[in-house]
Amino acid sequence: MTIEEAASTFAALGSEQRLAVLGTLVRAGPDGLSIGQLGEKSGVTGSTLTHHMRVLSQAGLVSQVRQGRSIICAAVEYGRVGALSAYLLRECCADCDDAEGHNHD
């Protein structure tokens, strides 16, 4: 992941409501939630939820799949979230004189 990709992805998370939506989908696991369930659990509904899902989807953090008449939010794109985490931690303690003994949790 490049610094530009990371910045763009972090920008998508720069909203309390989008972060709440993403957190709700993380808790739901790989099966995801319907839009209705996501709205109920996250407290974000209607056109606001649609907007936030579009931003998160464009950032590659979530995907949406239609099943019949319902849209199932196929939860989080765990690979993208993992890549973002790895980007943050890839040089952890690189400039420390003594990286031994530092807690990386």
Record the SSE blueprint.
Layout: H1 3-12, H2 16-28, E1 33-34, H3 35-42, H4 46-58, E2 62-67, E3 70-76, H5 78-89
Antiparallel strand pairs: 1-3, 2-3
Give a verbal description of the structure:
- It is a single chain.
- The chain has 105 residues and is of the alpha+beta class.
- It is 53% helix and 14% strand.
- It is built from 5 helices and 3 strands; from the N terminus they run H-H-E-H-H-E-E-H.
- A 3-stranded antiparallel β-sheet has the order 1-3-2.
- A hairpin with a 2-residue loop joins strand 2 and strand 3.
- Helix 2 packs across helix 3 (35-42) and helix 2 (16-28) crosses helix 4.
- The longest helix is centred in the first third of the chain and has 13 residues, at 16-28.
- It starts with a helix and ends in a 16-residue tail after the last helix.
- The mean pLDDT is 86.
Q: Helix coverage percent of residues?
A: 40-55%
Helix-strand string:
HHEHHEEH
Strand content range: 5-15%
Number of helices: 5
Largest sheet: 3 strands, antiparallel
Q: How far apart, in Å, are the first and last alpha carbons?
A: 22 Å
Mean pLDDT: 86
Q: Could you give the order of strands across the largest sheet?
A: 1-3-2
User: Which value, in Å, is the CA radius of gyration?
Assistant: 16 Å
Low-pLDDT sequence parts: none
Bulk shape:
elongated
The chain-level structural class is alpha+beta
The count of DSSP E runs of length 2 or more, i.e. the number of strands, is 3
